[in-house]
C-alpha cells in the first residue's frame, strides 16, 4: 500500500584538518553507487580549540564541480531534476565523487569535519499530484510559485503546468520546491482541448481551422516528445468535438469535481475498454483560481513510478500504473493479480484466477465496486472505516477495475471517490 519507504543508505566520513592545511581546498572522496535518485550531504565542524573553524562546502562529480555553497549551508541535496540552490541537478552517474571543502580558517590545534552522505535510491513507489492546472501564464490567477506551494502543502509530489496555448510557464517555474514541475501546455481549440505533457515547447503555433490542422499539431507535439491527453471529452462547455481517432495516449476521465461530464467520460472510457482497447485514464483539477469546489489535486492522480522524475512519472502513466482519488487524502485503492498491478496485462496461461483488492481511508457508507467487461461484478457497502481487503475471482473477464463511491454531505450527493485503471487479462 502507500506510501512506500524509499531505499537509502548512509555513510559518515571524518576528515581531520590540520592548521597547516589552512587556505587549501580539500576533497572527501566517495563512490557514487548505481541507481541513486537523490544525494543528501550534511556536515558538522568540530574545532579542537576555543578558536572557531570555518570550513566551506561544495561537491564535484567525476567530471566537474557540481555546486558550491561556501559557508552558507550545512546541508545540500542534489537530485536528477532538482537541487539546492548553488548546486546543479542532473545525472548521478556512478563513479568517483567528492565532497569539497575550503579550509578557510583552521585553529592551531586543527579541527574535524564530519561529513554524512545519504543516498536515496530509485524506489518504485506511489507518487501523487495534479496533471491539469493553470496560472497567470494564461487565464488563471495563481502564480506558478503559488501553485507549487499549495501542492507542497498538500503533500503532493508533482504538478503539470498546462496553461492554455502558452509555454512561458515551462521556462519560469520555481526550482526551489520539492514538487516536481512537469512541463506542459493545454492545446486549446474552439472544438476541444488536449494536454501536451513532458516537453517545454511542444508546438510552434496553436492555431487550427480543421481536423487536418489538429492532426498536424498533435503530430508536431508527438515528434517533440510530448504525451497527448484528450481533456474533459464530454464536458458540456468545451467537449472534444474533433475526431476521437486522433493520435493520443491517455484520456482525462475526471476533470475537477466529479459531475455528469465525468460520468459520461468514464462511460465512454469503459466502452473503449469493453471494445478491447487498452486506454489509460487520468484526472486533473483544471484549477484556475480560488474556488470552493475546484481545488488543486481534486482529483488527485496517483502514479506508481520507479523514480520521481518527469520521464519516470510519464513512463509509469503510459504503463497504466494509475489510480485517481477525489483528493490527496484518498480513499486509496490498489488491485493486484499475483505480481501484476493496475495497467498490467496478465499473460494467457498464467494460473491466476483472483484479483486482490486493497483500500485505505474508507468511510462507513462508502460503496466499493468491481467492474469488468461484463459489467458490475461485485458491490460492497463499507461497514467499518479504514482499510478493506478481499480476493475476488476473475475467471472469464478481459479486464477488471475498481471504483469507490461516497456520499458527500457538502453537496448532498453520492459521487465517485476513487477510480483505478484496469488490470487486463489476455485470453
Automatic annotation (TrEMBL):
Gene3D superfamilies (UniProt xref): Metal-dependent hydrolases (3.20.20.140)
Residue intervals of the Polymerase/histidinol phosphatase N-terminal domain: 129-191
SUPFAM superfamilies, per the entry: PHP domain-like
InterPro entries per the UniProt record, alphabetical: PHP_domain, Pol/His_phosphatase_N, Pol/histidinol_Pase-like
Superkingdom, natural source: Bacteria
Protein name: Polymerase/histidinol phosphatase N-terminal domain-containing protein
Species in which this protein is naturally found: Paenibacillus qinlingensis
